[in-house]
C-alpha cells in the first residue's frame, strides 16, 4: 500500500495498465509533454513514448472520434477531456458511435475505450469548468458511468474501466484531486489540501464496476451518494444525531441496486445526494428505483438534495454545493414522518 492523492492514483493506474498491455494508449489535450492540466498523466509520455501517450488538437469531436476508430481496430484508448464541460462537441461521437458500435455492428466491432473527465466544482471555474453532467451519460444505453470518491477507488475503478470491452465514462471530482476534503463547504480559500489522503494498493488492483460500498452502517435512514458528496454526507451524519447508513455508489451504471434495496428495506427512509442540478439529475432515477423496489418498506418519501437549478454561479459556488447543513435538514425531514 502507498499513500497517494487521487491524481497520483489515476496516474499510477495509467502506468499499470500501459505496462501490462501495449494496446493501451493515452490521448488528449496536453496529456503528453505537459502531463495534463491536472497532471494526471505526468511522466507517461517520457516512460512509454509519444506513440502511446500523445497530445491532440483542441477538438473534442476529433479526439473522441479518433479514439472510437482506434478502439474498433483493437486498441484501448484512454481519452482525457480537460473538463467535463468541454465534452459537448464530442458528445455526438460518444453517444452515436462509441455507445452504439457493438449493437450496430451485431457484435463484429466493440469499443473498449475510457473517456476521463474532471467533473464538479471547487476551483472557482464557474459555468464552463464546474458542471456535473453524469445524467447525460447514464441516460445513454451502451455506456458505463463511474465516479470515484477516493484515491483507492480511483485507481481500482480506472483499471477496471480500461479492461472493459465497451466504452466507460470516468468522471473525476476535481475537489478531491489533491487531497482530503472534510465534507464542509465553508472553505472558499482552501478548496483542497496538498497532502495525500488515501492508502492505495500497489500494482494491478481492480475495484469491480457495479459494486457500491457502505461507507457507514446505520439503521434509521439510508443516504445514497457518490463522488465529492460522499464526504459531505459523512460530515452531515456526524452532526445529525441519526443513525444513517451512507452508501457510496461508485458506479452509476451498472448500478448496484441490490445494495440499495437491502439498505433501504432495512432503514425505511432514504435521502439522495448529488452535486449536479436537481431537475432530471441522476438522483431522480435513484428515487424512482427506490420507490419501485422498496415501496412497502418506506416510512417517508424519498428526498433529494442537489445543486441549484441554475447555470453554475461563480460568486455563490460554495452555497451552490449541497453542504452538511442542507443534508442534515433533509435527514431530519425524513425522520419526522
Indicate the topology:
Layout: E1 2-4, H1 6-20, E2 24-28, H2 44-48, E3 53-55, H3 60-72, E4 76-80, H4 88-98, H5 101-104, E5 114-119, H6 134-138, E6 144-146, H7 151-163, E7 168-173, E8 198-200, E9 213-216, E10 221-225, H8 229-240, E11 244-248, E12 251-253, H9 257-267, E13 270-277, H10 282-294, E14 303-307, H11 317-320, H12 324-336
Parallel strand pairs: 2-3, 2-4, 4-5, 5-7, 6-7, 10-11, 10-13, 13-14
Antiparallel strand pairs: 1-8, 6-12, 9-11
Helix pairs in contact: 1-7, 3-4, 8-12, 9-10
Largest sheet: 7 strands, mixed
State the distance separating the first and last CA atoms.
45 Å
Number of helices: 12
| The CATH top-level class label of the largest domain | Alpha Beta
* Uncertain residue ranges: 186-196
Question: What gross morphology would you assign?
Answer: globular
Counting DSSP E segments of at least 2 residues, the number of strands comes to 14
CATH architecture designation of the largest domain: 3-Layer(aba) Sandwich
By secondary-structure content and strand pairing, the structural class works out as alpha/beta
**Content of β-strand:** 15-25%
With strands numbered from the N-terminus, the spatial order across the biggest sheet is 3-2-4-5-7-6-12
Q: What would CATH call the homologous superfamily of the largest domain? A: Thiamin diphosphate (ThDP)-binding fold, Pyr/PP domains
Number of domain units: 2
Provide the gyration radius in Å.
19 Å
Describe what you observe in this structure:
Its cofactor is thiamine diphosphate. Its EC number is 1.2.4.4. Keywords: Oxidoreductase. InterPro entries: THDP-binding, Transketo_C/PFOR_II, Transketolase-like_Pyr-bd, Transketolase_C. This protein is of the alpha/beta class and 337 residues long. The chain has 2 domains: 2-200, 3-Layer(aba) Sandwich (Rossmann fold), CATH 3.40.50.970; 213-336, Rossmann fold (3-Layer(aba) Sandwich), CATH 3.40.50.920. The protein contains 12 helices and 14 strands. The strands form 3 sheets. Strands 3-2-4-5-7-6-12 form a 7-stranded mixed beta sheet, sandwiched between helices. Strands 9-11-10-13-14 form a 5-stranded mixed beta sheet, sandwiched between helices. α8 crosses α12 (324-336). Residues 186-196 have low confidence and may be disordered.
Amino acid at each position: 500500500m502507498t499513500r497517494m492523492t487521487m491524481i497520483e492514483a489515476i496516474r499510477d493506474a495509467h502506468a499499470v495498465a500501459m505496462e501490462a498491455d501495449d494496446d493501451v494508449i493515452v490521448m488528449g489535450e496536453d496529456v503528453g509533454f505537459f502531463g495534463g492540466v491536472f497532471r494526471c498523466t505526468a511522466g507517461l509520455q517520457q516512460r512509454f513514448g509519444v506513440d502511446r501517450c500523445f497530445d491532440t488538437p483542441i477538438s473534442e469531436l476529433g479526439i473522441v472520434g479518433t479514439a472510437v476508430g482506434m478502439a474498433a481496430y483493437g486498441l484501448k484508448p484512454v481519452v482525457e477531456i480537460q473538463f467535463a464541460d468541454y465534452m459537448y462537441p464530442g458528445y455526438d461521437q460518444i453517444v452515436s458511435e462509441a455507445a452504439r458500435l457493438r449493437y450496430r455492428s451485431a457484435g463484429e466491432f466493440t469499443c473498449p475505450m475510457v473517456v476521463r473527465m474532471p467533473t464538479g466544482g471547487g476551483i472557482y471555474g464557474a459555468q464552463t469548468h464546474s458542471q456535473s453532467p453524469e445524467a447525460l451519460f447514464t441516460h445513454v444505453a451502451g455506456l458505463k458511468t463511474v465516479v470515484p470518491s477516493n484515491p483507492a477507488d480511483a485507481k481500482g475503478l480506472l483499471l477496471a474501466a480500461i479492461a472493459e470491452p465497451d466504452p466507460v465514462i470516468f468522471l473525476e471530482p476535481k475537489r478531491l484531486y489533491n487531497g482530503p476534503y472534510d465534507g464542509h463547504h465553508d472553505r472558499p480559500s482552501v478548496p483542497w489540501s496538498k497532502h495525500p489522503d488515501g492508502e492505495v494498493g500497489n500494482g494491478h488492483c481492480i475495484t469491480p464496476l457495479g459494486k457500491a460500498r457502505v461507507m457507514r452502517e446505520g439503521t434509521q435512514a439510508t443516504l445514497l451518494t457518490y463522488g465529492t458528496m460522499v464526504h459531505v454526507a459523512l460530515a452531515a451524519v456526524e452532526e445529525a444525531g441519526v443513525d444513517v447508513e451512507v452508501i457510496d455508489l461508485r458506479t452509476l451504471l451498472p448500478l448496484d441496486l441490490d445494495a440499495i434495496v437491502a439498505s433501504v428495506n432495512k432503514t425505511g427512509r432514504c435521502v439522495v445526494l448529488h452535486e449536479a442540478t436537481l431537475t432530471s439529475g441522476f438522483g431522480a432515477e435513484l428515487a424512482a428505483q427506490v420507490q419501485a423496489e422498496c415501496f412497502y418498506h418506506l416510512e417517508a418519501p424519498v428526498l433529494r438534495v442537489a445543486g441549484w437549478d441554475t447555470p453554475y454561479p461563480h460568486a455563490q459556488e460554495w452555497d451552490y454545493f449541497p453542504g452538511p447543513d442542507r443534508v442534515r435538514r433533509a435527514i431530519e425531514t425524513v425522520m419526522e414522518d
